[in-house]
């Protein structure tokens, strides 16, 4: 993905689900206009989820996910089913593909139950409809009340390319219900407000570009007609002196929170990219409430530091090096630090005393909320990089002052 492409976390995730050999992959290929997935007469050809980021009109940027068959048997089948269930945690719109000649099966009903339990908008697609007679239609299942939106499937033929456009329009109508009012920072500023962004350039910074939360924040501020000023931490004091007026806000990379807080006058609002991203993804309230667990850590406690993406680890990586170092210095305890990245988030968190998550810029809101829910249901505190660093540096209250409702959740700092 190029640096100007829409990030995966901002795309509508459309998952295609169903039993083996119902034509999911053929249908995905028709919708994308590409031979994205391998198609075969052999059931179960798709063994791993296939992802494709693309523009799909009239929706715009989407992530298409072709999933393995849900009805596989044996140990390999169990693994495929598990992968399918994991995909549901990031699915904004689900498409259940049903075989026209077999109709709704028990496996299909199980998938529909999962959609409803996870509150995922869904469409039922009857594929291979070219094999039906003109008067043939799948009958309404005996328990018609099972279907929230009524019995209104889309009849398509991937083989004949029939009604594919109608299906796209139905998907678009469901994806339109997503909340698009969330903003990273634009709702915090006024036109022509000057916002100073502190961006370190160090060994962990990607060469030739800014990290995604920084890019997204700059874009969001520009859309709000604010004036972002980007500066390295070692030039911050000089920049503030030269601006001629106080900035409306300073947003810093969490790694230099302490240094920046020492330079920025107390009356100027200060926060971090990570905190803004936590608010944007729906994690901020839980992160503020969960961070107090750092003060209760004991020798031998297990801590999970989780990232939503995979990247090459640098010598001073924030997740694997800096935060563990901050924790050891702050707590004085011998802690067992474990890390996860990408889709490798463990569902069983019961053995952890705390989860510290990244900002989640590469994850969509649904997956971030699912990870948060996993922790909360097991009574495990969860926080994020920016909140934890601000807490350990004694500046958390200041960093969330601009969010009064969130600040109410914060216990008095030591």
SSE topology sketch:
Blueprint: E1 12-18, H1 24-32, E2 50-56, E3 60-66, H2 74-88, E4 93-99, H3 106-117, E5 122-127, E6 154-155, H4 164-175, E7 194-198, H5 212-223, E8 227-231, H6 236-242, E9 249-252, H7 257-263, E10 270-272, H8 273-281, H9 284-290, E11 302-306, H10 318-331, E12 336-340, E13 354-357, H11 365-377, E14 382-384, H12 385-392, H13 396-399, H14 404-407
Parallel strand pairs: 1-3, 1-4, 4-5, 5-6, 7-8, 7-9, 9-10, 11-12, 11-13, 13-14
Antiparallel strand pairs: 2-3
Secondary-structure element string: EHEEHEHEEHEHEHEHEHHEHEEHEHHH
How many beta-strand segments?
Answer: 14
Number of domains: 3
Distance between the termini: 44 Å
| Reported CATH architecture of the largest domain | 3-Layer(aba) Sandwich
* CATH class call of the largest domain: Alpha Beta
CATH fold assignment of the largest domain: Rossmann fold
In which range does the helix fraction lie?
A: 25-40%
Mean of pLDDT: 83
Largest sheet: 6 strands, mixed
Gross geometry: globular
- Count helical runs: 14
Radius of gyration: 24 Å
CATH superfamily membership of the largest domain, which one? P-loop containing nucleotide triphosphate hydrolases
Which structural class do you get from the secondary structure elements?
alpha/beta
Please state roughly what percent of the residues sit in beta strands, choosing from under 5%, 5-15%, 15-25%, 25-35%, 35-45% or over 45%.
15-25%
Low-confidence stretches: 36-46
Spatial ordering of strands, largest sheet: 2-3-1-4-5-6
């Amino acid at each position: 993905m190029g640096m100007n492409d829409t990030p995966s976390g901002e795309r509508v995730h459309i998952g295609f689900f169903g039993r083996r050999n119902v034509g999911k992959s053929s249908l995905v290929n028709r919708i994308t206009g590409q031979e994205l997935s391998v198609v075969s007469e052999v059931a179960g050809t798709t063994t791993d989820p296939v992802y494709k980021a693309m523009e799909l009109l009239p929706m715009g940027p989407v992530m298409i996910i072709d999933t393995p068959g849900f009805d596989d048997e044996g140990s390999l089948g169990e693994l495929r089913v598990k992968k399918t269930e994991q995909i549901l945690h990031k699915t904004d719109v689900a498409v259940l593909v049903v075989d026209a000649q077999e109709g709704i099966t028990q496996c299909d009903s199980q998938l529909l139950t999962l959609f409803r339990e996870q509150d995922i908008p869904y469409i039922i697609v009857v594929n291979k409809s070219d094999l039906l007679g003109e008067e043939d239609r799948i009958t309404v299942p005996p328990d018609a009340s099972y279907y929230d939106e009524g019995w209104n499937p889309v009849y398509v033929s991937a083989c004949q390319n029939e009604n594919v456009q109608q299906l796209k329009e139905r998907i678009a109508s469901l994806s339109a219900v997503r909340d698009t009012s969330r903003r990273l920072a634009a709702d915090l500023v006024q036109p022509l407000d000057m916002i100073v962004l502190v961006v370190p350039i160090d060994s962990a910074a990607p060469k030739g570009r800014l990290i995604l939360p920084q890019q997204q924040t700059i874009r969001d501020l520009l859309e709000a007609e604010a004036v972002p000023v980007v500066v390295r931490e070692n030039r911050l004091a000089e920049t503030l002196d030269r601006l001629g007026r106080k900035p409306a806000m300073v947003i810093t990379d969490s790694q230099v929170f302490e240094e920046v807080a020492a330079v920025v006058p107390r009356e100027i609002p200060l926060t971090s990219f990570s905190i803004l991203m936590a608010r944007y993804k729906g994690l901020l309230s839980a992160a503020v409430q969960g961070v107090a667990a750092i003060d209760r850590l004991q020798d031998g406690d297990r801590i999970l530091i989780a990232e939503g993406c995979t990247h090459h680890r640098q010598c001073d990586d924030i997740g694997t090096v800096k935060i563990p170092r901050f924790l050891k210095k702050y707590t004085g305890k011998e802690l067992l630090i474990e890390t996860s990245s990408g889709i490798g988030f463990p569902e069983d968190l019961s053995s952890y005393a705390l989860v510290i998550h990244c900002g989640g810029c590469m994850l969509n809101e649904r997956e971030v909320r699912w990870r948060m829910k996993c922790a909360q249901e097991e009574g495990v505190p969860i926080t994020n990089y920016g909140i934890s660093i601000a807490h350990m540096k004694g500046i958390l209250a200041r960093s969330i002052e601009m969010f009064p409702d969130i600040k109410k959740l914060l216990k008095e700092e030591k």
